[in-house]
Design a protein that fits this description.
The protein is α/β, with parallel strands linked by helices and 211 residues long. It contains eight helices and seven strands, in the order βαβαββαβββααααα. It has two domains: 100 residues, Rossmann fold, CATH 3.40.50.720; 56 residues, no CATH class. The radius of gyration is 21 Å and the shape is elongated.
Length: 211
């Protein structure tokens, strides 16, 4: 089965995590980074998750999953090592039309989580469709070496310039953008900083005198 890659806006969306272990921690870290409204249902949780609950960043219900728990959620992640729990949550999710991911249990998933490389606003996702998470991690590690820290600044500059040009009604072609975001701009970020790099982007786009 093929998967359709998509990035979701989860800001303030109600997300449930069933399970309170180390895998749940990693899942919750990503949800919080996306500004999701996170609830954890698990008889036990790690110290890190307990701390997040104390800080008011997540809600924790210290109990086992019960049928009907998904009624108030938009998305659910299952992070337990109990196949019967995964299957029960997946069954309810399918009945309610709630998207579900069960860690290391693709048969009970309606979506899978790719390996991610994040550099500021730049996100690169790597997936093998669930066939080899190890290969996805390997490719991610190689990309991490290639996508160095200046890519975060480059993404911020590109976004800022795009907003400014749209506000002025100045069209720019895809080819012009491709030239404007080349290695010389990344080198300027490293050697001379953000302001000089932005000026170079505008020069490449041919709009420096207009902005």
């Amino acid at each position: 089965m093929g998967y359709y890659p998509v990035l979701l806006d989860l800001a303030s969306r109600r997300c449930l995590v069933v399970g309170g272990g180390v895998i749940a921690e990693r899942r919750i870290e990503g949800l919080l980074a996306a500004a999701a409204d996170v609830t954890v249902i698990s008889p036990q949780v790690t110290l890190a998750l307990a701390k997040l609950a104390t800080e008011g960043r997540i809600d924790v219900e210290r109990r086992a999953y019960r049928e009907g728990d998904l009624a108030r959620f938009d998305l659910v992640l299952v992070a337990t090592d109990r196949g019967e729990v995964n299957a029960a949550v997946a069954r309810e999710a399918h009945e309610r039309g709630v998207w579900i991911n069960a860690a290391d249990d693709p048969a009970n998933c309606t979506f899978i989580l790719p390996a991610l490389v994040r550099r500021g606003d730049l996100t690169v996702a790597v997936s093998t469709g669930g066939t080899s998470p190890a290969l996805a991690r390997k490719v991610r590690e190689e990309l991490e070496d290639h996508l160095t820290a200046e890519y975060a600044t480059l993404a911020a500059i590109a976004g800022e310039v795009r907003r400014e040009l749209r506000a002025l009604g100045l069209p720019v072609t895809a080819d012009a953008w491709r030239r404007a975001l080349g290695p010389d701009v990344r080198q300027l970020i490293v050697e001379r900083g953000r302001a000089d790099a932005k000026r170079r982007v505008l020069e490449h786009l041919g709009v420096a005198a207009c902005v």
